[in-house]
Amino acid sequence: MIDLQGILMSGAGMATNMPSYGLPSIVFVFVETIHWYAQSVRSGARTYFESTPNDRQAEMYQALESFAPSGFAERYRYGSENWNDPEKMKELDRWIDESDVACVSWLAGLQRRNRSVFWPRYA
């Protein structure tokens, strides 16, 4: 999935000045969730939230509301609202660790079910 994220993020149409990078919402939620989890696992969720612009966080929350399994959007909002609180971030870091398998499963299914959006040349 990291390879797919890299391919999607390196496209000629990438608009880094837009909260969603100019990607379709379903593709944006895929690439940003990988970014959220990867950065959180490497250095803690606080690092992700303090370095992600507020407009991108708002876009991500909406995308999670639309496409993610129950609980993901709520946890994302929790991190967005509490990133300054080390104790609350420890709780979020634990949740991220515990939900990693579920997240990978969801993202894999999202990509499979929406193949024509992710791989339009091969649809």
Tell me about this structure.
With 123 residues, the protein is an all-alpha fold. The protein has helices at 2-9, 25-43, 45-51, 54-67, 72-82, 86-113, 115-118. It has seven helices and no strands. The radius of gyration is 14 Å and the shape is globular. 23% of the residues are buried.
Short overview:
This protein is mainly alpha-helical and 123 residues long.
Record the SSE blueprint.
Layout: H1 2-9, H2 25-43, H3 45-51, H4 54-67, H5 72-82, H6 86-113, H7 115-118
Helix pairs in contact: 1-2, 2-3, 2-4, 2-6, 4-5, 5-6
pLDDT averaged over residues: 88
Order of helices and strands: HHHHHHH
Number of helices: 7
Q: What is the terminal separation in angstroms?
A: 19 Å
Q: Major β-sheet, in short? A: none
The best one-word shape is globular
Spans of at least 5 consecutive residues with low confidence: none
Classify the beta-strand content into a percent band.
under 5%
Keywords:
globular; 123 residues; mainly alpha
